[in-house]
Amino acid sequence: MRYKKAVTYFLTFSAIACMFTASYYFSYKQALRDFNESAVERNNDLIKELEKQGYLTNTVKQGETNDQGALSDTEDGQEDAEAASAIADTVLPSTQYTLQTYDMKTGQLSEEELPTPSYLIGLTRDEVITYLTDYQADLSLNEFEKGLVSFELITFSKDSIILRKTYNSDSVEYKYYLKAVNGYIVAYYGDQKTVYDYTGVAVENLPLEDRLHLENGIFIKDLDELYAVLENYSS
């Protein structure tokens, strides 16, 4: 009796194991099929994007012809020339990127070769200049405190691009900035956008002249001056 029960349990367990194995196998095959189909779609999308950017020339698919049966040599040459021109006018992943750093105080110029930044790849000369202009217009706190005064394009080609950052720490005259925000004094770093401290000091009880100054914003030279001004306002 016990033997029959053992055989029954074994057969039942084996059947369940086979069912799970079969289910896992078919799930794996379906997942692999979906992955391969997705990979093909991603590959096609990548090829289209590269063609759009000019990294690949458009070719005639096998079995397709134009009205004359095939592209003429002239049309072929024009497409190749246009593609080559597009590539020559943009930053490529293979473009050698050099960043120069010039310190106006010491007169020292240094440079280093770096991997081409992804945000530059695909940009034309004019687009790179626009990027540099926007970068200077919205400096990070780190660049502001180091005294970045210019970010320039020195050379541009598909083979090499050289950018130069010029710093002058003496140009950072004010390191902090006070401004009234929603009735309270907020202390910013000198870039006027990065908060140093929410002081909690209300402006409603301050003299009118001080309130007007804080509405417009007050530049503060250093930390000592900042503490002195805040103490005066809070007393």
Overview of the structural elements:
The protein is of the alpha+beta class. Helix content is 46%, strand content 23%. The protein contains six helices and eight strands, in the order ααββααβββββαβα. The chain has helices at 2-53, 73-88, 125-137, 141-146, 208-216, 223-234, and strands at 96-103, 108-114, 148-156, 160-167, 176-181, 184-189, 195-202, 218-220. The strands form two sheets. A four-stranded mixed beta sheet has the order 2-1-4-3. Strands 7-6-5-8 form a four-stranded antiparallel beta sheet. A hairpin with a 4-residue loop joins strand 1 and strand 2 (108-114). It is flat, with a radius of gyration of 33 Å.
Q: What integer value in Å does the Rg equal?
A: 33 Å
How large a portion of the residues is in β-strands, by DSSP E? 15-25%
The level of helicity is 40-55%
Shape: flat
Cα separation of the termini: 96 Å
Q: Structural class per helix/strand content?
A: alpha+beta
Q: How many DSSP-defined strands?
A: 8
N-to-C order of helices and strands: HHEEHHEEEEEHEH
Q: Specify the biggest β-sheet.
A: 4 strands, mixed
Mean pLDDT: 79
Helix count from the secondary structure assignment: 6
Instruction: Strand order, main sheet: write it out.
Output: 2-1-4-3
Note poorly predicted spans: 58-65
Q: What would you call the quaternary organization?
A: single chain
Question: Can I get a quick summary?
Answer:
By secondary structure, the chain is of the alpha+beta class. It has helices spanning 2-53, 73-88, 125-137, 141-146, 208-216, 223-234, and strands at 96-103, 108-114, 148-156, 160-167, 176-181, 184-189, 195-202, 218-220.
